[in-house]
Structure formats: C-alpha cells, structure tokens
Fold this protein.
Amino acid sequence: MPDVIVTHRLTKFYDRRPAVDSLSLHVPQGTVYGLLGRNAAGKSTAIKMLLGMVHPDCGRAELFGEDSARLRPETRARIAYLAEGHPLYRWMTVGEMVRFSRAFYATWNDSLVAQVLDHFGLSRRAKIRRLSNGQRAQVSLALAVAADPELLILDDPTLGLDTVVRRDFLESMIEIIQRRGRTILFSSHILGDVERVADRIGVLVDGVLRVDCPTEHFKESVRRIVLEFDRDPPALPALPGLVGSWRVGRKLDLTIVGYSAEHARLLEALGPRSIDVAELNLEDAFIEYTRGPRRPLAFLGEEETGTESPAAQGVA
C-alpha cells in the first residue's frame, strides 16, 4: 500500500524549545493510526503541521505525495479534519452548518449526512449553541464524512464526551473507517478507544516519536515486573530496555521494553523471593512507558525511591 502520510524530520520550536522534534512518520493507505502522548507532547502541533496550519521550522510533511504546505484544492478535498473541541459556528442551525460546509466541496453526500444525523437523532433545525458537547461532536463527524474523504485526521475527537456518547461516536467511526481504502490518523487521551480501533500507534514523548509499531506489538513489548526480596533490594545490573525502576520497601518495581529470557535470568540472579511479570493493556503500557519518575509520598510510612530513564527505548 502507498503511504498517505509521510513526514521527514518535521520540527517545530516554541520559545526555543522543540514542540515536535525530528518527526519522521509513514502511514500507509488504509491504516488506522493512533497518535499518543501526554499533554504537551506535541500531538496537536504535529497534526497542524500535517495540515499546513502551522509551518515547521525544518523538515517537511507530505499528504498523498504533495507538500502539505502547498496542497492543491483537489487534494484538500480528499482530506477531512476534526479539530479538538469541535469548533462550529454556534449561531447557525445544524442545517445551515451543513449547507455552509457543502459549498467548499465538489463532491458532497447529502444522503450520508442525513444518515449520520438521523443515527444520532439530531434535528437540522437545532441551534449549534444549544447542543451538548457530544452533539457538536456528532455534527462534526457528519460534516467530516459528507465529502467521502480518503483521509480523516482527528485531534482528540472524543475529548469531553461522556462514556455512552463516546462509545456511540467511536462505533460510528468504526463503521466509517471500514470503507475500503480509508486512512485515519487520530490522537486521543482515551487509550481504550485507541486500543479498539487503531492498527498502529505512535507515542510522542517530549516531541520525539519514541514508538511506532502495531498496537498489539507495543502491548506485548512492555512488561511490568515486581520483584520482592527478604532483604533490601540489591543494585540492579544493566538491563537493556529498562524504562523505569523504583523501590518501595523490599520491592523493586520495573518497567521493561522487550522482556526476554535474558532479562529473567539477570533478575533471578538477584535472589528475589518472587518475580511477578504482568501483561498490560494499552492504557497501562502507555502509562508505564511515559509516566516519568515516581516521587516519594511522606505519608507512606516506608521508604520509596525511584529512578526513571527517559522513555528512549523505541518500539519498532
């Protein structure tokens, strides 16, 4: 499959600090790609550079083989974008918003818009300002798919939605992305949503893409290991793939990428009373990989110390 999205060392600085640092990314046609990261990791900046809304300080981005800063109108018509917060003209009705948006596209599927609005029970006479956050998200989805785009780019589309509305929105999105050849790039803070729909994920840490791999591969690669001792834990040997370690009393809590038989041998040589290796879902794997150092709590009543290496172990 050809790559729909390609970036080459895409970089953006704010106040001399890199918001996005040398991002090189390839998203093949038909892929559902989840772009993950903690707050201020660079997700929204990366998306805006992809769309030509923010100019990079260096590097470049391509959509459908064209420089994203100079996309032809006919190429832009193949792309739909859902912005964070679903900004819409609140003085309009839903029907007026549909008619306004239709004017920007050479192709427009009124039947599909009607199906999505009916599915969500949205009246065309309703004022945008009187809709809930969830209803505005549903209107945004209807507008995004109306032109039958080949590429959907969604910036945290379910942020602020309650659980029921978010699930309905997600299931509707799943139906849409199952259409042949459609590509989706979306960021989200809801890791359960990403786990349900994403074929592949990227994890940004401080603007750097540390992970770029199939979703299942990332989950299988990150392990949390808890060692319990009859004494104070000894010093750790050099462990490849160690993302973080901390000690609580007589326990060592480790996060390791690519846990293997060699890791098991090195840890068993420390003489622990027990070793517990935990498989993680996507949310837990993401948290363990990106959490940073744990800080001691004064009320714990026992010593807690921790060291965390930066999440520099990429998962390919």
User: Anything to note?
Assistant: Residues 243 and 255 are 5 Å apart (CA to CA). Residues 297-304, 307-312 have pLDDT under 50 and may be disordered.
